[in-house]
Recover the amino acids of this structure.
């Protein structure tokens, strides 16, 4: 995305310079700039028209770049909550992640969770906020373990 932003800024700079040149030519033709400089009005009008066409083209290109950025932004933020974590849903149906719900909800930052298996199931840990998330299977295993522990030997 930074390349798109740099491209868009460069287009704006070029459009500004080209438009300024075209306006200066129009000022010269109408005698507002320097009446002492002889100029061929037809040639200057043709050049001003060409420069304004360049500016118009740059504006169209910039609009296209902005649409691309908007699309990338939309795709980047296609986060779907699937208890207990977020997954990024890609246009082709692929799922990326998981991502920390705490970090995403608080800051909008997609922090990838590291997987630390728990009894054959997924357990994810955030490297930023240190929150641990258990997949449904890991949660069931944890609850079964806690139940067995609460019952203890000889308890029913």
């Amino acid at each position: 995305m930074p390349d798109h932003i740099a491209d868009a800024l460069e287009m704006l700079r070029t459009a500004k310079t080209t438009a300024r040149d075209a306006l200066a030519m129009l000022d010269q033709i109408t005698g507002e700039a320097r009446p002492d400089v002889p100029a061929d009005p037809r040639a200057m009008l043709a050049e001003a028209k060409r420069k304004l066409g360049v500016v118009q083209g740059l504006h169209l290109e910039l609009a296209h770049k902005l649409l691309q950025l908007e699309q990338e932004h939309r795709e980047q933020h296609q986060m779907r909550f699937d208890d207990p974590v977020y997954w990024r849903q890609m246009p082709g149906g692929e799922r990326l992640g998981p991502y920390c719900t705490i970090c995403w909800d608080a800051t909008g930052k997609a922090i990838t969770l590291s997987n630390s298996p728990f009894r054959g199931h997924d357990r994810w840990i955030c490297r930023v906020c240190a929150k641990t998330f258990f997949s449904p299977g890991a949660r069931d295993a944890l609850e079964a373990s806690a139940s067995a522990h609460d019952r203890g030997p000889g308890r029913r």
